[in-house]
Specification:
single chain; about 425 residues; 10 helices; 11-stranded mixed beta sheet; 6-stranded mixed beta sheet
Length: about 425
């Protein structure tokens, strides 16, 4: 058990004084735009039918220990160096934060996020589902074994999830049989998928989501080796797998621009969801910035939805298009695991993006912070909300974005 506690290592995390982080922009010193509630006076000039609100978040890891506390847990067997049963991670969480009364209901894990969804009523809800949904026993022995029982898929429908991005480094933890069952299970639950498929054509195809009276949202999803996706997980003409990108070159941007252009219709909002980069660290490589800018410049992409890091990273608004370089974990079973506490992977964020459908421009971006505790999303404390807002402000300085922390501890993104 002690080995699990330190499995993320003991690398020194450089701290920073919160006061120093206040180099952030504020509403008073940022000569730009401030995210706004679409129902406020600032938005009266826009027809309601032209505003589309998307909820996106980072990694939703409902497998392993979380699966074990849900109503229909699967076989707890896992193939990991430090544990052979998912119950070990339940034990860690309970030792850290107290007992979890099992079984919990399907809606339990979303906790305080559900009232937020009911209040804001986003048009679409898009998550990165970082687990296989399967009964397969063919674990890949890659060191991590994430799977959720297909009988627990109601935990996704309980939050009204519209689209699951699957181009990530855990969807094939239980082999290609596990991926196929994942696809079948989500299809039966009427949840669209993007980024993985039965062959490359399906893996590369976008999820097409229609919003009655407003138009369509196309979700393209890709996974990169920098996030830990093995190259042999790539889908091909005759093999299932993920939509795998080997690089972020201008040639790839040109190819994606052609594919997107062939499918795009007037008023479509195009989202590109990318699993890229390592688990820890705030650095945004120049190649990621150049790729994101290229997708907006050449392919007309409206939203870049990045994930893989276990913590939130910088936000950029480029040509009035949001780039979320890393949304962090939204649900995980890491409670009690030590080694990277300085990054606060227990803090999660809901991102609400309001887009003008006619022009694809960002009208507002609001972030709602939470803390993961007992495998449940709980509204962040004032101190935690301030900490996260300072981090996002600090990381946004070089991208021209700032954070306004509101009295209710939600955050509005400010951009030039």
């Amino acid at each position: 058990m002690s080995a699990i506690l330190s499995r993320f290592g003991r690398r020194q995390v450089l701290g920073f004084p919160l006061a120093a982080a206040m180099t952030q922009f504020s509403a008073s010193n940022c000569a730009g735009r401030v995210s706004a509630d679409p129902k406020s006076d600032d938005d009266k000039s826009l027809a309601d039918a032209d505003l589309v609100t998307l909820f996106v978040c980072g990694d939703v890891m409902t497998g392993r220990a979380i699966d074990q506390v849900l109503p229909q847990p699967g076989n707890p067997r896992i193939c990991e160096r430090y544990a052979t049963s998912a119950e070990a991670y339940v034990d860690l969480a309970e030792k850290a934060h107290g007992p979890i009364a099992r079984p919990v209901g399907f809606a339990y894990i979303w906790g305080d996020a559900l009232p937020e969804l009911r209040t804001r009523m986003p048009d679409l809800r898009i998550i990165n589902l970082e687990t296989s949904v399967t009964t397969s026993e063919a674990c890949t022995n890659r060191g991590i074994s994430y799977r959720m029982s297909p009988d627990n898929v109601p935990c996704l429908t309980a939050a009204g999830v519209d689209c699951c991005v699957l181009a990530n480094n855990h969807v094939l933890d239980w082999g290609r049989a596990g991926l196929l069952e994942t696809l079948d299970t989500l299809e039966s639950a009427k949840i669209k998928t993007a980024g993985a498929g039965r062959d490359i054509a399906e893996a590369a195809a976008p999820a097409i989501l229609t919003i009655p009276g407003k138009g369509r949202v196309l979700v393209f999803a890709f996974g990169l080796p920098t996030s830990g996706i093995p190259g042999d997980w790539a889908a091909s003409p005759g093999r299932s797998g993920v939509n795998f990108l080997n690089d972020l070159s201008p040639a790839v941007i040109k190819l994606l621009a052609e594919r997107i252009g062939a499918l795009r219709q007037p008023r479509d909002i195009v989202v590109v969801s990318i699993h890229w980069g390592p688990n820890w660290g705030y650095e945004i490589p120049k190649r990621q910035v150049d790729f994101a800018h290229g997708l907006i410049d050449e392919a007309g992409v409206d939203v870049i939805h990045g994930h893989s890091s276990h913590h939130a990273k910088a936000i950029e608004v480029y040509r009035d298009r949001p780039i979320l370089y890393g949304c962090g974990d939204f649900l995980n079973d890491y409670e009690g695991i030590t080694g990277y506490e300085g990054f606060r992977d227990d803090l999660a964020a809901m991102y609400f993006l309001t887009i003008e459908a006619s022009r694809g421009k960002l009208a507002g971006l609001t972030i709602v912070p939470f803390q993961i505790r007992n495998f449940r999303l709980n509204r962040a404390s004032p101190a935690d909300a301030t900490w996260l807002s300072n981090i996002l402000a600090r990381e946004g300085v070089s991208f021209g974005t700032g954070i306004r922390l509101n009295s209710d501890k939600t955050m509005d993104v400010i951009w030039r």
